[in-house]
Protein backbone atom coordinates (compact mmCIF):
# COMPACT_ATOMS: atom_id res chain seq x y z
CA UNK A 1 0.00 0.00 0.00
CA UNK A 2 2.86 2.33 0.80
CA UNK A 3 4.18 2.60 -2.80
CA UNK A 4 0.67 3.29 -4.04
CA UNK A 5 0.19 5.95 -1.37
CA UNK A 6 3.49 7.62 -2.24
CA UNK A 7 2.65 7.61 -5.94
CA UNK A 8 -0.72 9.19 -5.24
CA UNK A 9 0.93 11.80 -3.01
CA UNK A 10 3.47 12.66 -5.71
CA UNK A 11 0.69 12.95 -8.28
CA UNK A 12 -1.29 15.19 -5.94
CA UNK A 13 1.68 17.48 -5.34
CA UNK A 14 2.46 17.60 -9.06
CA UNK A 15 -1.15 18.40 -9.86
CA UNK A 16 -1.22 21.20 -7.32
CA UNK A 17 1.95 22.65 -8.76
CA UNK A 18 0.56 22.43 -12.28
CA UNK A 19 -2.59 24.25 -11.14
CA UNK A 20 -0.63 27.27 -9.97
CA UNK A 21 -1.07 30.29 -12.29
CA UNK A 22 1.66 31.12 -14.79
CA UNK A 23 2.05 34.48 -16.52
CA UNK A 24 4.19 35.95 -19.23
CA UNK A 25 5.63 39.23 -17.99
CA UNK A 26 7.21 40.93 -20.98
CA UNK A 27 8.64 44.24 -22.08
CA UNK A 28 8.07 45.01 -25.77
CA UNK A 29 10.68 47.25 -27.39
CA UNK A 30 11.89 48.41 -30.79
CA UNK A 31 14.60 46.00 -31.90
CA UNK A 32 16.70 48.83 -33.36
CA UNK A 33 16.39 51.58 -30.78
CA UNK A 34 15.30 49.74 -27.63
CA UNK A 35 12.44 52.23 -27.18
CA UNK A 36 9.34 50.80 -25.46
CA UNK A 37 6.37 50.16 -27.74
CA UNK A 38 3.38 51.41 -25.75
CA UNK A 39 0.14 49.82 -26.93
CA UNK A 40 1.71 46.64 -28.34
CA UNK A 41 -0.68 43.71 -27.92
CA UNK A 42 -0.08 40.10 -26.88
CA UNK A 43 -2.47 37.19 -27.30
CA UNK A 44 -2.19 33.44 -26.78
CA UNK A 45 -2.57 31.83 -30.21
CA UNK A 46 -6.04 30.41 -30.63
CA UNK A 47 -7.40 32.18 -27.55
CA UNK A 48 -9.63 35.24 -27.22
CA UNK A 49 -8.62 38.31 -25.24
CA UNK A 50 -5.10 39.44 -24.55
CA UNK A 51 -3.06 42.24 -23.00
CA UNK A 52 -1.75 45.65 -24.06
CA UNK A 53 1.62 47.15 -23.16
CA UNK A 54 1.70 50.22 -20.91
CA UNK A 55 3.66 53.40 -21.62
CA UNK A 56 6.88 51.59 -20.65
CA UNK A 57 6.16 48.68 -22.98
CA UNK A 58 5.34 46.28 -20.11
CA UNK A 59 2.49 43.78 -20.23
CA UNK A 60 1.31 40.74 -18.26
CA UNK A 61 -0.54 37.85 -19.92
CA UNK A 62 -2.01 34.74 -18.30
CA UNK A 63 -0.85 31.46 -19.88
CA UNK A 64 -3.55 28.76 -19.67
CA UNK A 65 -1.62 25.55 -20.43
CA UNK A 66 2.01 25.85 -21.53
CA UNK A 67 3.54 25.12 -23.92
CA UNK A 68 1.84 28.17 -25.42
CA UNK A 69 2.55 30.41 -28.39
CA UNK A 70 2.07 34.12 -27.73
CA UNK A 71 1.51 36.43 -30.71
CA UNK A 72 2.81 39.99 -30.21
CA UNK A 73 1.77 42.77 -32.58
CA UNK A 74 2.37 46.49 -33.05
CA UNK A 75 1.36 48.68 -36.00
CA UNK A 76 4.25 49.20 -38.40
CA UNK A 77 6.27 46.27 -36.99
CA UNK A 78 6.64 42.62 -37.93
CA UNK A 79 4.51 40.29 -35.79
CA UNK A 80 6.48 38.15 -33.33
CA UNK A 81 5.58 34.68 -32.03
CA UNK A 82 6.96 33.84 -28.60
CA UNK A 83 6.89 30.22 -27.44
CA UNK A 84 6.73 29.53 -23.69
CA UNK A 85 7.77 25.92 -23.07
CA UNK A 86 6.48 23.53 -20.42
CA UNK A 87 9.91 23.55 -18.74
CA UNK A 88 9.82 27.35 -18.45
CA UNK A 89 6.34 27.14 -17.00
CA UNK A 90 7.45 24.50 -14.47
CA UNK A 91 10.37 26.68 -13.38
CA UNK A 92 8.02 29.65 -13.01
CA UNK A 93 5.64 27.56 -10.89
CA UNK A 94 8.51 26.48 -8.68
CA UNK A 95 9.49 30.12 -8.26
CA UNK A 96 5.92 30.98 -7.34
CA UNK A 97 5.70 28.08 -4.88
CA UNK A 98 8.93 29.24 -3.26
CA UNK A 99 7.53 32.72 -2.74
CA UNK A 100 4.38 31.23 -1.26
CA UNK A 101 6.42 29.11 1.21
CA UNK A 102 8.40 32.19 2.21
CA UNK A 103 5.23 34.07 3.02
CA UNK A 104 2.47 31.85 4.40
CA UNK A 105 0.39 34.95 5.14
CA UNK A 106 -0.17 35.43 1.42
CA UNK A 107 -3.67 34.08 0.88
CA UNK A 108 -3.67 34.85 -2.86
CA UNK A 109 -0.21 34.13 -4.29
CA UNK A 110 0.56 35.60 -7.69
CA UNK A 111 2.13 32.36 -8.87
CA UNK A 112 5.12 32.17 -11.18
CA UNK A 113 6.07 34.33 -14.14
CA UNK A 114 8.06 33.79 -17.28
CA UNK A 115 9.93 37.01 -18.02
CA UNK A 116 10.93 38.08 -21.51
CA UNK A 117 12.09 41.12 -23.45
CA UNK A 118 10.37 40.98 -26.84
CA UNK A 119 12.03 42.92 -29.62
CA UNK A 120 9.93 43.84 -32.65
CA UNK A 121 11.52 44.90 -35.92
CA UNK A 122 10.02 47.57 -38.19
CA UNK A 123 8.20 45.81 -41.03
CA UNK A 124 8.93 46.88 -44.60
CA UNK A 125 5.95 48.33 -46.47
CA UNK A 126 5.45 46.81 -49.91
CA UNK A 127 4.04 49.13 -52.59
CA UNK A 128 3.73 47.31 -55.91
CA UNK A 129 7.21 46.16 -56.76
CA UNK A 130 8.88 48.73 -54.50
CA UNK A 131 9.88 47.79 -50.98
CA UNK A 132 10.44 50.69 -48.58
CA UNK A 133 12.41 49.80 -45.46
CA UNK A 134 13.79 53.12 -44.23
CA UNK A 135 10.56 55.03 -43.59
CA UNK A 136 9.46 55.86 -40.04
CA UNK A 137 6.55 53.72 -38.77
CA UNK A 138 4.19 56.71 -38.98
CA UNK A 139 4.78 57.14 -42.70
CA UNK A 140 4.43 53.43 -43.40
CA UNK A 141 1.13 53.56 -41.54
CA UNK A 142 0.04 56.59 -43.55
CA UNK A 143 0.73 54.80 -46.84
CA UNK A 144 -1.65 52.07 -45.70
CA UNK A 145 -4.24 54.70 -44.76
CA UNK A 146 -3.97 56.28 -48.21
CA UNK A 147 -4.51 52.90 -49.87
CA UNK A 148 -7.49 52.28 -47.60
CA UNK A 149 -8.92 55.69 -48.48
CA UNK A 150 -8.80 54.91 -52.18
CA UNK A 151 -10.58 51.60 -51.63
CA UNK A 152 -13.28 53.15 -49.42
CA UNK A 153 -13.89 56.01 -51.86
CA UNK A 154 -14.52 53.53 -54.68
CA UNK A 155 -16.81 51.33 -52.59
CA UNK A 156 -18.70 54.12 -50.83
CA UNK A 157 -19.37 56.11 -53.99
CA UNK A 158 -21.05 59.08 -52.32
CA UNK A 159 -22.65 60.39 -49.15
CA UNK A 160 -25.07 63.15 -48.21
CA UNK A 161 -25.65 65.15 -45.04
CA UNK A 162 -27.41 68.13 -43.55
CA UNK A 163 -25.45 70.74 -41.62
CA UNK A 164 -26.15 73.50 -39.13
CA UNK A 165 -23.35 76.05 -38.91
CA UNK A 166 -22.73 79.07 -36.68
CA UNK A 167 -20.04 81.75 -36.89
CA UNK A 168 -19.29 84.35 -34.18
CA UNK A 169 -17.09 87.40 -34.78
CA UNK A 170 -15.57 89.44 -31.94
CA UNK A 171 -13.58 92.64 -32.15
CA UNK A 172 -10.32 92.74 -30.21
CA UNK A 173 -8.65 96.02 -31.11
CA UNK A 174 -6.00 98.02 -29.25
CA UNK A 175 -8.61 100.25 -27.60
CA UNK A 176 -10.99 97.46 -26.55
CA UNK A 177 -11.02 96.70 -22.83
CA UNK A 178 -12.60 93.33 -23.61
CA UNK A 179 -13.51 91.35 -26.76
CA UNK A 180 -16.69 92.80 -28.21
CA UNK A 181 -19.02 90.38 -30.08
CA UNK A 182 -20.46 92.13 -33.11
CA UNK A 183 -21.60 89.56 -35.69
CA UNK A 184 -23.39 86.20 -35.73
CA UNK A 185 -24.22 84.00 -38.71
CA UNK A 186 -26.32 80.82 -38.78
CA UNK A 187 -26.77 78.55 -41.81
CA UNK A 188 -28.61 75.39 -42.82
CA UNK A 189 -26.94 73.43 -45.61
CA UNK A 190 -27.17 70.36 -47.78
CA UNK A 191 -23.83 68.62 -48.21
CA UNK A 192 -23.06 65.97 -50.78
CA UNK A 193 -19.89 64.18 -51.69
CA UNK A 194 -19.40 62.05 -54.77
CA UNK A 195 -16.30 60.35 -56.05
CA UNK A 196 -14.87 62.52 -58.81
CA UNK A 197 -17.17 65.42 -58.00
CA UNK A 198 -15.81 66.36 -54.58
CA UNK A 199 -17.67 67.83 -51.63
CA UNK A 200 -20.41 70.38 -52.31
CA UNK A 201 -22.36 72.47 -49.83
CA UNK A 202 -25.59 74.24 -50.73
CA UNK A 203 -26.67 76.86 -48.20
CA UNK A 204 -30.48 76.80 -48.15
CA UNK A 205 -31.06 79.14 -45.20
CA UNK A 206 -28.98 81.91 -43.68
CA UNK A 207 -29.51 84.39 -40.86
CA UNK A 208 -26.94 87.10 -40.29
CA UNK A 209 -26.67 89.80 -37.60
CA UNK A 210 -26.14 92.58 -38.49
CA UNK A 211 -27.85 92.30 -41.84
CA UNK A 212 -25.74 92.74 -44.94
CA UNK A 213 -22.82 90.93 -46.46
CA UNK A 214 -20.25 88.90 -44.52
CA UNK A 215 -17.10 90.39 -43.04
CA UNK A 216 -14.73 90.25 -45.98
CA UNK A 217 -11.85 88.42 -44.27
CA UNK A 218 -13.58 86.15 -41.74
CA UNK A 219 -16.71 84.68 -43.25
CA UNK A 220 -18.44 81.32 -42.81
CA UNK A 221 -16.31 78.58 -44.39
CA UNK A 222 -17.78 75.54 -46.13
CA UNK A 223 -17.23 72.25 -44.30
CA UNK A 224 -14.04 70.67 -45.73
CA UNK A 225 -13.71 66.87 -45.97
CA UNK A 226 -10.31 65.97 -44.63
CA UNK A 227 -10.43 62.27 -45.54
CA UNK A 228 -11.73 62.02 -49.10
CA UNK A 229 -10.69 65.37 -50.62
CA UNK A 230 -7.32 66.05 -52.26
CA UNK A 231 -7.37 69.79 -51.43
CA UNK A 232 -8.71 71.75 -48.46
CA UNK A 233 -10.27 75.19 -48.93
CA UNK A 234 -9.27 76.98 -45.72
CA UNK A 235 -9.79 80.72 -45.28
CA UNK A 236 -9.36 81.57 -48.92
CA UNK A 237 -6.49 79.18 -49.53
CA UNK A 238 -6.29 75.84 -51.28
CA UNK A 239 -4.08 73.59 -49.15
CA UNK A 240 -2.91 70.10 -50.20
CA UNK A 241 -4.84 67.65 -48.01
CA UNK A 242 -3.01 65.24 -45.73
CA UNK A 243 -4.88 62.38 -47.44
CA UNK A 244 -4.21 63.13 -51.10
CA UNK A 245 -2.51 60.19 -52.88
CA UNK A 246 0.88 61.95 -52.89
CA UNK A 247 0.50 63.38 -49.36
CA UNK A 248 3.97 62.18 -48.34
CA UNK A 249 5.47 64.68 -50.77
CA UNK A 250 3.98 67.47 -48.65
CA UNK A 251 3.86 66.05 -45.10
CA UNK A 252 5.84 63.82 -42.76
CA UNK A 253 3.97 61.68 -40.21
CA UNK A 254 5.34 60.52 -36.87
CA UNK A 255 3.64 57.84 -34.80
CA UNK A 256 2.75 58.96 -31.27
CA UNK A 257 0.58 57.59 -28.47
CA UNK A 258 -1.83 54.67 -28.63
CA UNK A 259 -5.20 55.35 -27.01
CA UNK A 260 -7.87 52.85 -25.90
CA UNK A 261 -11.39 54.32 -25.77
CA UNK A 262 -14.95 53.13 -26.35
CA UNK A 263 -13.74 49.62 -27.04
CA UNK A 264 -11.50 50.81 -29.89
CA UNK A 265 -7.81 51.39 -30.30
CA UNK A 266 -6.63 54.71 -31.77
CA UNK A 267 -3.23 55.80 -33.02
CA UNK A 268 -2.12 59.43 -32.74
CA UNK A 269 0.20 60.82 -35.40
CA UNK A 270 1.97 64.15 -35.68
CA UNK A 271 1.51 65.93 -39.03
CA UNK A 272 4.67 67.81 -40.03
CA UNK A 273 4.70 69.98 -43.20
CA UNK A 274 7.73 69.58 -45.47
CA UNK A 275 7.50 73.23 -46.59
CA UNK A 276 5.72 76.45 -45.68
CA UNK A 277 2.13 77.32 -46.45
CA UNK A 278 0.66 73.96 -45.38
CA UNK A 279 -1.03 72.66 -42.22
CA UNK A 280 0.50 71.03 -39.15
CA UNK A 281 -0.84 69.34 -36.05
CA UNK A 282 -2.23 66.00 -34.91
CA UNK A 283 -4.49 63.35 -36.39
CA UNK A 284 -6.08 60.33 -34.66
CA UNK A 285 -6.57 57.14 -36.70
CA UNK A 286 -8.78 54.15 -35.93
CA UNK A 287 -6.46 51.16 -35.73
CA UNK A 288 -7.28 48.23 -38.08
CA UNK A 289 -9.85 50.36 -39.97
CA UNK A 290 -7.27 52.99 -40.99
CA UNK A 291 -9.77 55.84 -41.11
CA UNK A 292 -9.58 59.27 -39.46
CA UNK A 293 -11.46 59.74 -36.18
CA UNK A 294 -10.21 63.21 -35.18
CA UNK A 295 -7.84 65.86 -36.46
CA UNK A 296 -6.52 69.11 -35.02
CA UNK A 297 -4.57 71.15 -37.58
CA UNK A 298 -3.23 74.69 -37.75
CA UNK A 299 -2.71 76.72 -40.89
CA UNK A 300 0.76 78.06 -41.64
CA UNK A 301 -0.25 81.58 -42.64
CA UNK A 302 3.17 83.20 -42.59
CA UNK A 303 2.58 84.35 -46.16
CA UNK A 304 -0.45 86.62 -46.28
CA UNK A 305 -1.75 88.72 -49.14
CA UNK A 306 -2.61 92.39 -48.70
CA UNK A 307 -4.59 93.81 -47.06
CA UNK A 308 -4.43 90.91 -44.56
CA UNK A 309 -1.59 91.68 -42.16
CA UNK A 310 -1.88 88.56 -40.00
CA UNK A 311 -3.99 85.41 -40.01
CA UNK A 312 -3.97 82.74 -37.33
CA UNK A 313 -6.38 79.82 -37.80
CA UNK A 314 -6.86 76.29 -36.47
CA UNK A 315 -9.27 73.59 -37.58
CA UNK A 316 -10.72 70.53 -35.89
CA UNK A 317 -12.63 67.62 -37.39
CA UNK A 318 -14.51 64.80 -35.71
CA UNK A 319 -15.59 61.71 -37.62
CA UNK A 320 -17.98 58.98 -36.52
CA UNK A 321 -18.88 55.58 -37.99
CA UNK A 322 -21.73 55.57 -40.50
CA UNK A 323 -23.61 52.34 -41.14
CA UNK A 324 -22.94 51.91 -44.83
CA UNK A 325 -24.48 48.44 -44.94
CA UNK A 326 -23.21 45.45 -46.87
CA UNK A 327 -19.53 44.65 -46.73
CA UNK A 328 -18.60 48.16 -45.56
CA UNK A 329 -20.59 47.88 -42.31
CA UNK A 330 -19.35 50.59 -39.94
CA UNK A 331 -15.87 50.83 -41.47
CA UNK A 332 -16.86 54.06 -43.27
CA UNK A 333 -16.33 57.00 -40.90
CA UNK A 334 -17.86 60.27 -42.10
CA UNK A 335 -17.60 63.86 -40.78
CA UNK A 336 -19.90 64.85 -37.90
CA UNK A 337 -18.40 68.10 -36.60
CA UNK A 338 -16.09 70.81 -37.91
CA UNK A 339 -14.64 73.63 -35.79
CA UNK A 340 -12.62 76.60 -36.91
CA UNK A 341 -11.23 79.48 -34.90
CA UNK A 342 -8.60 82.15 -35.16
CA UNK A 343 -7.95 85.82 -35.72
CA UNK A 344 -7.38 88.11 -38.68
CA UNK A 345 -5.86 91.58 -38.76
CA UNK A 346 -6.28 93.81 -41.80
CA UNK A 347 -3.93 96.70 -42.55
CA UNK A 348 -4.87 99.63 -44.77
CA UNK A 349 -2.88 102.78 -45.50
CA UNK A 350 -2.66 105.02 -42.44
CA UNK A 351 -4.20 102.76 -39.82
CA UNK A 352 -5.33 99.26 -38.93
CA UNK A 353 -8.80 97.76 -38.64
CA UNK A 354 -9.22 96.14 -35.19
CA UNK A 355 -8.28 92.46 -34.98
CA UNK A 356 -11.30 90.26 -35.60
CA UNK A 357 -11.55 86.86 -33.93
CA UNK A 358 -13.72 84.19 -35.48
CA UNK A 359 -15.23 81.01 -34.09
CA UNK A 360 -17.16 78.64 -36.36
CA UNK A 361 -18.79 75.31 -35.53
CA UNK A 362 -20.70 73.14 -37.99
CA UNK A 363 -22.53 70.00 -36.88
CA UNK A 364 -23.67 67.41 -39.41
CA UNK A 365 -26.86 65.39 -39.17
CA UNK A 366 -28.41 62.64 -41.30
CA UNK A 367 -25.03 61.58 -42.67
CA UNK A 368 -26.16 58.98 -45.19
CA UNK A 369 -23.74 56.88 -47.23
CA UNK A 370 -24.95 55.48 -50.54
CA UNK A 371 -23.82 53.76 -53.70
CA UNK A 372 -23.56 55.55 -57.06
CA UNK A 373 -26.98 56.21 -58.57
CA UNK A 374 -28.82 56.31 -55.25
CA UNK A 375 -28.69 60.07 -54.60
CA UNK A 376 -32.48 60.30 -54.86
CA UNK A 377 -32.77 58.16 -51.73
CA UNK A 378 -30.81 60.52 -49.46
CA UNK A 379 -34.07 61.85 -47.90
CA UNK A 380 -32.96 65.42 -47.17
CA UNK A 381 -35.14 67.72 -45.11
CA UNK A 382 -33.70 70.86 -46.67
CA UNK A 383 -35.13 70.71 -50.18
CA UNK A 384 -36.17 74.33 -50.65
CA UNK A 385 -34.08 76.83 -52.60
CA UNK A 386 -31.95 79.44 -50.90
CA UNK A 387 -33.79 82.22 -49.10
CA UNK A 388 -37.02 80.36 -48.34
CA UNK A 389 -36.32 80.01 -44.62
CA UNK A 390 -36.61 83.12 -42.46
CA UNK A 391 -36.47 83.93 -38.77
CA UNK A 392 -34.68 82.17 -35.95
CA UNK A 393 -37.23 79.36 -35.53
CA UNK A 394 -35.81 77.20 -38.32
CA UNK A 395 -32.50 77.00 -36.45
CA UNK A 396 -34.09 75.59 -33.30
CA UNK A 397 -32.89 72.01 -33.87
CA UNK A 398 -29.36 73.22 -34.59
CA UNK A 399 -29.31 75.34 -31.46
CA UNK A 400 -30.40 72.35 -29.39
CA UNK A 401 -27.46 70.39 -30.75
CA UNK A 402 -25.13 73.39 -30.32
CA UNK A 403 -26.39 75.76 -27.58
CA UNK A 404 -25.49 79.46 -27.83
CA UNK A 405 -22.76 80.64 -25.45
CA UNK A 406 -22.89 83.95 -23.59
CA UNK A 407 -21.15 85.97 -26.33
CA UNK A 408 -23.45 84.58 -29.00
CA UNK A 409 -26.50 85.36 -26.88
CA UNK A 410 -25.21 88.94 -26.49
CA UNK A 411 -25.13 89.39 -30.28
CA UNK A 412 -28.43 87.59 -30.83
CA UNK A 413 -30.29 89.90 -28.40
CA UNK A 414 -28.45 93.18 -29.07
CA UNK A 415 -30.48 96.08 -30.45
CA UNK A 416 -27.25 97.91 -31.21
CA UNK A 417 -26.10 95.10 -33.50
CA UNK A 418 -29.46 95.03 -35.27
CA UNK A 419 -29.35 98.81 -35.92
CA UNK A 420 -25.71 99.05 -37.01
CA UNK A 421 -23.54 98.17 -39.97
CA UNK A 422 -20.32 96.18 -39.84
CA UNK A 423 -18.28 99.34 -40.45
CA UNK A 424 -19.90 101.05 -37.47
CA UNK A 425 -19.43 98.04 -35.18
CA UNK A 426 -15.75 97.79 -36.08
CA UNK A 427 -14.95 101.26 -34.75
CA UNK A 428 -12.87 101.08 -31.54
CA UNK A 429 -14.45 101.92 -28.21
CA UNK A 430 -14.51 105.59 -27.21
CA UNK A 431 -13.13 107.17 -24.07
CA UNK A 432 -10.09 104.89 -23.63
CA UNK A 433 -7.52 107.61 -24.27
CA UNK A 434 -6.60 106.74 -27.84
CA UNK A 435 -8.35 109.64 -29.51
CA UNK A 436 -5.98 109.82 -32.43
CA UNK A 437 -6.38 106.16 -33.30
CA UNK A 438 -10.15 106.34 -32.94
CA UNK A 439 -10.41 109.45 -35.10
CA UNK A 440 -8.25 107.88 -37.83
CA UNK A 441 -10.28 104.68 -38.00
CA UNK A 442 -13.56 106.60 -37.87
CA UNK A 443 -12.52 108.77 -40.81
CA UNK A 444 -11.38 105.68 -42.70
CA UNK A 445 -14.57 103.72 -42.18
CA UNK A 446 -16.71 106.80 -42.71
CA UNK A 447 -14.94 107.44 -46.02
CA UNK A 448 -16.41 104.27 -47.46
CA UNK A 449 -13.84 101.59 -46.61
CA UNK A 450 -15.79 98.41 -47.42
CA UNK A 451 -15.47 95.61 -44.83
CA UNK A 452 -18.27 93.56 -46.37
CA UNK A 453 -17.79 90.96 -49.06
CA UNK A 454 -20.03 89.19 -51.51
CA UNK A 455 -22.43 86.67 -50.03
CA UNK A 456 -20.70 83.41 -49.18
CA UNK A 457 -21.82 80.06 -50.70
TrEMBL record:
Pfam family, one: CarbopepD_reg_2
Record key words, sorted: Signal
Entry-linked Gene3D superfamilies: Carboxypeptidase-like, regulatory domain (2.60.40.1120)
Leader sequence segment: 1-19
SUPFAM superfamilies with a match to the protein in the record: Carboxypeptidase regulatory domain-like (SSF49464)
Domain of life: Bacteria
This protein's name: Carboxypeptidase-like regulatory domain-containing protein
The species this protein was found in: Rubrivirga litoralis
Amino acid sequence: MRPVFLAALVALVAGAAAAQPVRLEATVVDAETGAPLAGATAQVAGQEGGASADRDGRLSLALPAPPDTVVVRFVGYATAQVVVTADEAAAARAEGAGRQDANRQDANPRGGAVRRTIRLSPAPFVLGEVTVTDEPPGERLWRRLLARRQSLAARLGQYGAEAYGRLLLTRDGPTDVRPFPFALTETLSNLSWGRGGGLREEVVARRRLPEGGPFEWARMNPVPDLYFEDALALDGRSIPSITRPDALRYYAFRLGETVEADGRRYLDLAVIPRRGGLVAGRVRVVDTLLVIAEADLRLDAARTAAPVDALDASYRWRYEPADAGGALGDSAWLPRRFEREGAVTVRVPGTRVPTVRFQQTSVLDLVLPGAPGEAADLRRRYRSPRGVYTGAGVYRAGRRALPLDSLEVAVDTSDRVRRSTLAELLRPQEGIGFGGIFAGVSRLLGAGFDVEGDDDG
